[in-house]
Amino acid sequence: MDLSVSIGSLRLSNPLIAASGCFGYGVEYAGAVNLSSLGGVAVKGLFLAEREGHPPPRIVETPSGMLNAIGLQGIGVHRFIAEKLPELRRLGAVVIVNICGTTLDEYVELARILSDAEGVAALELNISCPNIKEGGITFGCSLTGTHSVVSAVRKVTRLPVIPKLTPNVTDVASFARAAEEAGADAVSLVNTFLAMAIDVETRRPRLSNIVGGLSGPAIRPIAVRMVYECRQAVRLPIIGMGGIATATDVLEFLIAGATAVQVGTANFVDPLLWGKLLDGLSAYLTRHGIDRIADLTGTLDTTKREHAWISS
Amino acid sequence: MLFDIDAAVIENRRLSEHYSVLVLDAPAIAAAARPGQFVMLKPTHSTDPLLRRPFSVFEVIRDDEQTPVAISVLNKRTGVGTSLLYEAEPGATIGCLGPLGRPFEPVAPPAEAWMVAGGVGLAPFVTLATRLQELGTPTTLFYGARTAGELYYVDLFDRLGVHTVLSTEDGTRGTSGRVTAPLADALSALGGDSTIKLYVCGPTPMMRAVAGLAADHRRACDVSLEQVMGCGMGGCYSCVVLTRDPGQSPHFVRSCLDGPVFDSRRIVWEALTH
After folding, report:
1. What residue ranges do the domains of chain B occupy?
2. pLDDT attached to residue A137
3. Measured between CB atoms, which of A53, A64, A216 is closest to B237?
4. Any idea which residues of A carry the catalytic annotation?
5. DSSP state letters, chain B
6. What does the pLDDT average to over B203-225?
7. CB spacing of A53 vs B227 below 8 angstroms
8. Residue B108: how many CB atoms within 10 A of its CB?
9. Could you tell me if B127 and B151 are in contact, meaning their C-beta atoms sit under 8 angstroms apart?
10. What is the DSSP string of B54-102?
11. At what angle do helices A247-256 and A273-288 cross, to 10 degrees?
12. pTM score, two decimals?
């Protein structure tokens, strides 16, 4: 049985990737999880400089989901390369570095720096964080912005370039198309849905940032639909995510058109879920007589069913 | 070593309408936990509420051969998750992940340990007192609550050889008023040659006041903070606390990894929101 998948030139031993922003820098989990057993680890979004992020409260729970407004607290690319990357290499992790810029030049500079570092497998372009005002999302919410940031990064790196798309647009598939035309190797989707929650007793927002991003099982059906729409629109590999917590959820995304998936919020609840997901995927392939998990991608059957009582 | 156990509820001692002590069948965590560490509990198998909740390990329960067999947590019902835990009946299973976090560093004689607890902030002090007793460290517990009925497990500390100083806001037991008043008196009465260390857990205003007293009297002081926490593992960056370290501007650190126990001098108290 073959669980491996390919994202452009990048070969992953299985389709499970730890989602950026939900797995620290990966090293936090090294005591609990064999990082080399994951398809990949997408580390917390990095700017050139260190960032403090938003004051607490940074998260709040909602039914079957959570809102976050962390504000991309981070150690910056230089400390990441010096302090985290060697450890990730030693642990055998396939490292996907999520990069964030306030300007086009910052994305380009980050891509240059990381292309020269040993042990980076791919770049994920964060053009979709809903929680910071400057940069990022302004590229991700404009087709020309998406095109320009992807093509600018494309010119300076040989690493696979994977823009992470926001669902907070009318037609996410057009953004996947813009990314494809600009030379992306894959797209990942979806980032969180812009949302808010209010304490009615105090009439105050539950997050210090007032609004935040909704993740968790609550968003999964919308994310599956968006992956399906992008599958119709582009030939690029798609990395699907949004509320995945079980092997069945993973399979749903693969059948809708994803080549690989990222798991985020569920890792907060169950940091040891990776083995269970892999076991579930293997059991499914065995049960359905499928040798390669890659063969499942985009196999959604939408042919009309003849009902027995009509045909008889 | 981290363990994720579907722990059976052995017992749920309802102390009052709001407080209960939930005893969980989690021997591996009981054996590994150090004073001040916490567990992340999943109060339901459904996705609502979705996340786990952090709890100090309250007691490590041992069998007749002194083998650790279970842990308990001190739970105060304040929301959906804590209500589910308050209502949990024996036989139910609760997801229990731990032990997590930076523990207390217990002082050894000739130093003395002064523990300061407010309300549910009593939680980390049974395990700490047990360890201090093993070390032979003279230990005092300053323990405050709103009313006499909410001062729990005082006899347990008596049995551990801990000197207890009690206070209630309504004056129904011990001194009347806040726990900081008898603590301030005791700090003022100390000789300059005595070495004591303060360990504090309770409401933020109380911890801030005790940290101030400790600074005034130049005494070492560790606080155990309770922040809203998403994962307990360092993954989500939600439980951050603003800290001030020498030579650096104030910065956010994760209380699940850097804490929950902090040197009180590091905390930028005016930035703590609750």
Report:
1. 3-100, 112-226
2. 74
3. A53
4. 129
5. --EEEEEEEEEEEE-SSSEEEEEE--HHHHHH--TT-EEEEE--SSSSS-S-EEEE--EEEE-TT--EEEEEEEEE--SHHHHHHHH--TT-EEEEEEEESBPP----TTSEEEEEEEGGGGTTHHHHHHHHHHHT--EEEEEEESSGGG---HHHHHHTT-EEEEEETTSSSSEES-THHHHHHHHHH--TT--EEEEEES-HHHHHHHHHHHHHTT-EEEEE-----S-SSSSS--SEEEE--TTS--EEEETTTT-BEEEGGGB-GGG---
6. 96
7. no
8. 11
9. no
10. EEE--EEEE-TT--EEEEEEEEE--SHHHHHHHH--TT-EEEEEEEESB
11. 60
12. 0.94
**Choosing among B4, B102, B237, which should be mutated to test the A contact, i.e. which has the most A CBs within 10 A?**
B237
Task: Say yes or no for a CB contact (<8 Å) between B239 and A56.
Answer: yes
Q: What is the pLDDT of residue A70?
A: 95
B3-100 fold: Elongation Factor Tu (Ef-tu); domain 3 (2.40.30)
CB < 8 Å from A in window 167-186 of B: none
Instruction: Tell me, yes or no, whether A241 lies in a domain.
Output: yes
Inspect the interface and report whether the beta carbons of A268 and B227 lie closer than 8 Å.
no
Q: Please report, rounded to a whole number, the percentage of residues in chain B having pLDDT higher than 70.
A: 99
Residues β-bridged to residue B118: B144
Which domain covers residue A158, as residue numbers?
A: 5-55+70-192+215-302
Domain count, chain A: 1
CA A95/CA A144 separation, integer angstroms: 28
Nearest-by-Cβ selection for A73 from B2, B52, B252? B252
Sheet containing strand B196-201, edge to edge, reads B175-176, B163-168, B139-145, B112-118, B196-201, B220-224, B261-263
Third-level CATH fold of B112-226 = Rossmann fold (3.40.50)
B223-244 per-position pLDDT tens digit: 999 899 999 999 999 999 999 9
Residues of B in contact with A63 (CB under 8 A): 48
Residue type, A95: V
Residue A98: CATH number of its domain: 3.20.20.70
Q: Chain A contact for B41, CB < 8 A?
A: no
